[in-house]
Amino acid sequence: MKFRFAAFGLHLSGSAIALTLVLGGFWLGWYRWPGWYLASALHIVGILVLVDVVLGPTLTLIVANPNKRRTELARDIAIIVAVQLIALAYGGDTLWRGRPLYYAFSVDRLELVQASDLAADDIAAGRRENPKLAPYWQSLPRWVWAPLPENPQEAQKIVTGSVFGGTDVIQMPRYFRAWEQGLPELRKRLERVDEFKYFSPTEKGTLKSRIAQLRLPADQANAMVLWGGSRRVLAVFDLGTLKIAALIRAD
Predict the structure, then answer these.
(1) pLDDT for the residue numbered 137
(2) Could you give the strand order of the β-sheet that contains 109-114, starting from the edge strand earlier in sequence?
(3) In the chain, what are the domain boundaries?
């Protein structure tokens, strides 16, 4: 058993280090709060942990028989490691494609924009027409304002298209503007917690309690919902500076 546990320990250490480097890089770069929550990244992380830290080393514990020939043992462990690497590559690719690129204020809401939300044509148009705010492979998450274009016909085309499942303005980097430019409009759209239709009475009570714990006003029009697919958090703003004071979950 000593041989088996030694092999298990080495495999567990190597797997944990590799997974920590990959997930740490994603977390530090793109998935800091609230990115991991809004992008629903935890289920991918769970699969990676299960395969690379639990299943892989456990299989090594099972196959690491000291009576096996070394070539046979090396083959068995190599197969296990190969499966782990495939799972790690798949998970890493999924996290890369779904990485948060923007938190966009548009019209009356805040929305998460992931890499997978952007079509190649819209990315190319953004790089031509709006290179400062367009996404590149090394781009980290940015807060931007995504207003509808000033041309009424173009704006109506985007609105109509988005209603029927087409591309929305938050998926068109060519129209993005600096976050600071949208703050006057954002101030007009802020609401009190009690005014939001998207939260149940229980969730509103939870939000107000958490806001109070942070010593922020819970009865002022200082908040806006930040959406990420079916998930949402409440963005609470400092009314003096319009800086985000807190991003709060309702669950």
Answers:
(1) 93
(2) 177-178, 142-145, 100-106, 109-114, 223-228, 231-237, 244-248
(3) 2-97, 100-188, 190-251
